[in-house]
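Aim 2, interim progress. The first record below pairs a target sequence with its structure tokens.
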Amino acid sequence: MDTDEGAERETLLTELLVIQSDLETSLAPEIIESVLTLRLTMQQLKVLALLVTEPEGNTIQGLARTAGVSLATMSGIVDRLESQDMVERTVDPRDHRVRRVTATPTGRETVQRLLMGRPELSRTPLNRLALDDLRALTQGIRALLKSVQADRPDH
């Protein structure tokens, strides 16, 4: 990479980060509204988000360790999530003494709905973009996704 290209890259990255911050500030009320409509505490939401990223689930002990809370506290959090049909406890297929906690379809939909609550990529603002801008944004986000996925161990 030559000096001019490096300088342009740095300028674009700085501008993009400023734009992202401005966008998040502008959209904060809508994002906060989607969080406030959930019937979950912040701890419950954190545990549910952890479980959505773990296809095989986790144990109460593993969740407690990850969240930095006691087993009793985690057991209570999981009980409340289970009563809302967000998670389920199942027997570990490899060790029948162990019970695993996994997100249910309702739990996964809840987290997905929260993530989809990010209004910057909803149809309304995107429909207002010029077609060339929409093409450029699509290309850029596609490239960003490819870069993020390349860093994941399962790809």
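The second target in this work package is listed in the same format:
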Amino acid sequence: MYVAPSSRNIVVEMHLSKDERQKLIALAGGKDAADSVVDRVHMVLWRGEGRPVSEIAAALGTTPATVYRWLARYEQSGINGLTGSRSTGRPRSVPEPVRSRIIALTRSSPPAESGLSRWSSRAMARYLKCEGIEVSHNFIAELWRDHGLKLHRQGEF
């Protein structure tokens, strides 16, 4: 049973049945299990063994608040509580039309007046400023990596 902490000295107990423990171990040992899910499973298993939350947090490189949150999710929803929710991450700060414009430019030769034979991430960032688009060269390089574009291997267009 999990009791949410209301003070620093509260004792939180978690008891796992043999069946629950086996399901958790199987989930953590699956070859398709994401690292984040494996960490969540370890939080539950280790807490079920009686390890302190602070020790679990330190072992997994997270905070006690995160451990408490996942223990509560497990108590509420079982294994689905550990696997069902996936963070979408930070929202995209560069809209899709701008991303598409960068990819389209990448696949074409630089304008003749630029004096460039091929794009570099820095040259493209400078060029895009003329179009009113401000993105970093790091963003452009990351976008190229995400799309498998390797301009350094393509030579001249």
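The radius of gyration is 24 Å. This observation will shape the mutagenesis plan for the next reporting period.
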